[in-house]
Design a protein that fits this description.
Length: 442
């Protein structure tokens, strides 16, 4: 029984607590709704009050303006007649002063005195405006900010006539141009223009090309500057050019100093010269004399022909020595130039990748620098090729004359200490010499 009562009391207490909790929740919700409603009402009232306050402030400002006007009108009404007369007198004096200034200015512009007096104020003001426009259109020195060649800014007097602008900085005078709203130095001129600042008259140097001539002149460069643009690959090209030049000069001197080969057309002519002796014999000099001595000192025909062949090969080596270096220069120089051009083009494309291709001056400048090495390579190769051809031709011609003389000596059977055993062996050896192979070489 007690347990039942206890359970009933617990159930009743739980039910009462739930009812109280629900009642509290309802009160909280009601309070929230009341709060939201109050906040909305306050916001609306604040907006309304703000609008009302703004309108009231405008009304206050308007009333202040009206009050100031009314006060000024009241002050003017309270001014005495003497004050008004004094103010009117000042206005008349000011008008007279202004009229005198207008009359003086118009007379300075060349208008007659009677015509100026006959003009009313509006006509005078129109004439002054026209004169001001004409004066502004006349050239005159005006201070402007100039960007100097070193990048510094300087305030300089400038003279502009149409699209042409001159400037004076210290003792220097030059042309300027407007780039991106700034006056920049374009080029320097003779200093005679400076006299126009003091005398207000003089002769000026005019560029009818509007700066293109000065730009072209500034773009001109010396030989050294042009060569330096080629970069590192110019060094081997110039080195080959120096080597070819030195060798060419030495070979020219060597070939020009060679004694003339005395032409001997037949064996009979040779015998006649040798028999004459003395001055005729002394005509043979240099390599031709060496060949003659070999023929005279040889013991046998075979020995003579072998020694003649060996001597001819030595003479040929002497004549052709270092000529091939000139030919190598003619072949290698354009290849080095092409290599420099390829390297320059690679660098140009690398710059285009990094900075873009929007500026054509960067691209054209890089290509121009890259082509310098090709130009230098061709400049070195063409003269080297011509020099190689001339030197080779001269050496070959001289060697041919020596070879012909050696063939005549090879056919001289009476100019040795001992003859061949038979004519067949002699003819065979002579044929071998003529074909360029000594009998002992086999």
């Amino acid at each position: 029984m007690k347990r039942t009562l206890l359970l009933i009391m617990l159930a009743w207490a739980s039910a009462g607590a739930g009812a109280q909790q629900q009642d509290m929740l309802n009160k909280i919700e009601s309070a929230k709704r009341s709060l939201n409603s109050a906040e909305s009402r306050i916001v609306k009232e604040r907006v309304s009050l703000s609008s009302t306050l703004s309108q009231l402030e405008k009304d206050v400002m308007s009333l202040r303006d009206k009050t100031a006007v009314a006060r000024r009108l009241a002050d003017e009404k309270t001014l005495s007649l003497s004050k008004l007369e004094e103010r009117l007198s000042e206005w008349k004096e000011q008008q007279t002063y202004q009229q005198n200034l207008l009359n003086r200015f118009l007379q300075q512009q060349g208008l007659p005195f009677n015509e100026v007096n006959a003009m009313d104020t509006a006509a005078k003001m129109a004439a002054v405006s026209d004169a001001a426009v004409k004066t502004a259109s006349l050239p005159g020195w005006k201070p402007r900010t100039l960007v100097l060649e070193n990048g510094e800014l300087a305030s300089v007097p400038s003279l502009s006539v149409g699209p042409v602008t001159w400037f004076k900085h210290n003792d220097a005078v030059g042309l300027a141009e407007t780039v991106s709203g700034r006056l920049q130095t374009k080029g320097m001129l003779p200093s005679g223009l400076a006299a126009t600042m003091q005398e207000q008259a003089g002769t000026v140097v005019l560029d009818p090309t509007l700066g293109r001539a000065l730009t072209r002149e500034s773009a001109n460069e010396g030989v050294i500057e042009h060569v330096v643009k080629g970069g590192i690959w110019v060094v081997p090209i110039l080195l080959f050019a120096l080597i070819a030049t030195v060798i060419g000069l030495l070979k020219v001197v060597q070939l020009l100093r060679l004694p003339k080969v005395i032409p001997v057309r037949s064996q009979a002519m040779l015998d006649k010269i040798l028999q004459s002796g003395g001055a005729a014999r002394a005509q043979f000099k240099g390599m031709q004399e060496d060949l003659l001595k070999i023929a005279e000192q040889a013991v046998t025909f075979r020995d003579r022909d072998d020694q003649l062949f060996v001597q001819l090969q030595q003479d040929r080596q002497t004549l052709d020595k270092w000529i091939n270096a000139v030919a190598v220069t003619a072949a290698v120089a354009p290849l080095l130039g092409l290599l420099g051009t390829v390297s320059g083009m690679i660098e140009t494309f690398r710059m285009m990748t990094s900075f873009g291709s929007s500026d054509p001056e960067v691209i054209s400048g890089g290509i121009a620098k890259a082509l310098v090495t090709t130009e230098l390579g061709l400049i070195v190769a063409i003269p080297a090729l011509i020099l190689n051809a001339l030197l080779s031709r001269k050496a070959r011609q001289y060697y041919t004359e020596l070879e012909n003389f050696a063939l005549i000596l090879s056919g001289d059977e009476g100019n040795t200490h001992q003859e061949y055993p038979d004519a067949q062996a002699r003819d065979t050896d002579t044929e071998l010499l003529g074909s360029g192979h000594p009998s002992g070489a086999s």
